[in-house]
Amino acid sequence: MVVADGSAKVLMNGKAVDFGTEVHDPAFSPDGKHVAFIDGGGNLVVANADGSGRTEVAKNPGGQRWSHPTWQATPADQYRPARDNLFFASTAGGTTLWQVVATAHDGKPQQLGLGSFSGEGENPPPMTGNQWPAGAGRFGAAVYEHDNGSSSDLFIRDDYLRQQGGLSIKDAAQPAYTLVGGSSSDDPKPEVVFVRTVRGHQHVFVSSLETATGGQASTPKDLTPNATADCTMPAVSADGKTVAYSTPAGVFTVSADGSGTAKQITNTPGFPAFRPAF
């Protein structure tokens, strides 16, 4: 478990590790060997998992806020080349999603294409108002939050379906995404955690996710039904068994199936992330 509070000191399995620069919105590569984050200058950085070997993947040109990098790292197959990309959100042009090669040095990000599901009457997803991307790595799928002005919904973008995507879960924000079963399973199950307001407070929910038909997800389960304060910034472990979230009192973890009670990890708020085992 990793918790970042925006300072250079990142809490990794209970130990403070100095990254030498501010760390915002950390996200680990699918193999757990590298971490991407936004540094104190607003730039996109990749480092070794212990904070060493920092590389500025892309430099923020100024006048923009970059946030929430996430990995798209997929092996080659008979249809697609291998991918090792980072998606992130930028306030440029009305809040948009961008991509850059994860191994780049001062690379040039390109705006991320967003195609629609195939079928009559399907419209392309909006290109603006998009933020908080979260990838599951394998097959190139990612979810992201779309702010429609009055509320937020979750959309999916699936490279396995040739960049098809669209609305998946309504009234949802701050997603985190994983494939339960991972690369060892022939039939991994997409799972997403997200935030939704309930009785005046933000609660953390978990739901399965249908990637192929445009939003036939199961009924989401509230993992924080008794919350008396906002629960935000959820993260889900690679095996889909544990969810972490932040509250004003600190960071907590809870079982993704809703069993048991939440466990407090830190006494201060922060952005949680899980490092995959390798």
Give the helices and strands, then pairings.
Blueprint: E1 2-4, E2 9-12, E3 15-18, E4 24-28, E5 34-38, E6 44-48, E7 55-58, E8 66-74, E9 83-90, E10 96-101, E11 110-111, E12 130-135, E13 141-147, E14 152-158, E15 164-169, E16 173-180, E17 189-198, E18 201-208, E19 221-222, E20 232-236, E21 242-247, E22 250-255, E23 263-264, E24 271-273
Antiparallel strand pairs: 1-2, 1-24, 2-3, 4-5, 5-6, 6-7, 8-9, 9-10, 10-11, 12-13, 13-14, 14-15, 16-17, 17-18, 18-19, 20-21, 21-22, 22-23
Main attributes?
278 residues; Neuraminidase; mainly beta; 47% strand; four-stranded antiparallel β-sheet; globular
Detailed description of the structure:
By secondary structure, this protein is mostly beta strands. The protein has one domain (2-273): Neuraminidase. 0% of the residues lie in helices and 47% in strands. The chain is built from no helices and 24 strands. It has strands at residues 2-4, 9-12, 15-18, 24-28, 34-38, 44-48, 55-58, 66-74, 83-90, 96-101, 110-111, 130-135, 141-147, 152-158, 164-169, 173-180, 189-198, 201-208, 221-222, 232-236, 242-247, 250-255, 263-264, 271-273. The strands form six sheets. A four-stranded antiparallel sheet has the order 3-2-1-24, with no helix packed on it. A four-stranded antiparallel sheet has the order 4-5-6-7, with no helix packed on it. Strands 8-9-10-11 form a four-stranded antiparallel sheet, with no helix packed on it. The two termini are 14 Å apart. The model has no long low-confidence stretch (mean pLDDT 90). Pfam families: PD40 (PF07676). InterPro entries: 6-blade_b-propeller_TolB-like (IPR011042), WD40 (IPR011659).
